[in-house]
Amino acid sequence: MKKTILAAIFITIISVLFLQSGISGSKKIPSAKVKNLKGETIDTKNFSNDGKPFVIDFWATWCKPCIHELNVIKDLYPKWQKETGVKFIAVSIDDSRNSKKVAPLINGKGWTYDIYLDENSDFKRAMNVNNPPHTFLCNGKGEIVWEHNGFADGDEKVLYEQIKKISK
């Protein structure tokens, strides 16, 4: 009896995990409202890059690994764009009090990414992000094909390898 129950639980868990991952193994960007630095509201389901891959990176001004990641990628980004056409979208999860620090930080760092503010954490919740930095790679169809949480030196190389795989 116990073996039957355990087997049923195991099968249920495997089934749920399989269904969550999707049969095709890809997930579309959910709809949520974010703002660009001009204060215009954008629907995240419209994020795209003309059929080329794009990266969505969740970060915050108070997150040291986030700042380090974005600084490391800054120097590599022009080469990545030239070779793969990738676009980098950095989504700040700073709340309305801290989001005023975003533009000065970006300008001071010289980042050329597309920057959005998720002050209410709607997009963060929709993407199931718990801790920044959290990076998602999307193919040209806007499907999430890879994700990574955290950042350590060398992770940028792994991300670029993933970008190159889907750029062919």
Report what the structure shows.
By secondary structure, the protein is an alpha+beta fold. Helix content is 40%, strand content 22%. Strands 1-8-7-4-5-6-2-3 form an 8-stranded mixed β-sheet. Helix 3 links the parallel strand 5 and strand 6. The N terminus is likely disordered.
Give the arrangement of secondary structure elements.
Layout: H1 2-21, E1 27-28, E2 33-36, E3 41-43, E4 54-59, H2 64-84, E5 87-92, H3 102-109, E6 114-117, H4 122-126, E7 134-138, E8 143-149, H5 155-167
Parallel strand pairs: 4-5, 5-6
Antiparallel strand pairs: 1-8, 2-3, 2-6, 4-7, 7-8
Short description:
The chain is 40% helix and 22% strand. It is α+β, with helices and mostly antiparallel strands and 168 residues long.
Average pLDDT taken over every residue: 87
Report low-confidence residues grouped into runs of 5 or more: 3-24
CATH class: Alpha Beta
Question: What is the CATH H-level superfamily?
Answer: Glutaredoxin
Helical residue percent band:
25-40%
Taking strands numbered 1, 2, ... along the chain, how are they ordered across the largest sheet? Answer: 1-8-7-4-5-6-2-3
**What is the CATH architecture assignment?**
3-Layer(aba) Sandwich
**Strand residue content:** 15-25%
Pattern of helices and strands: HEEEEHEHEHEEH
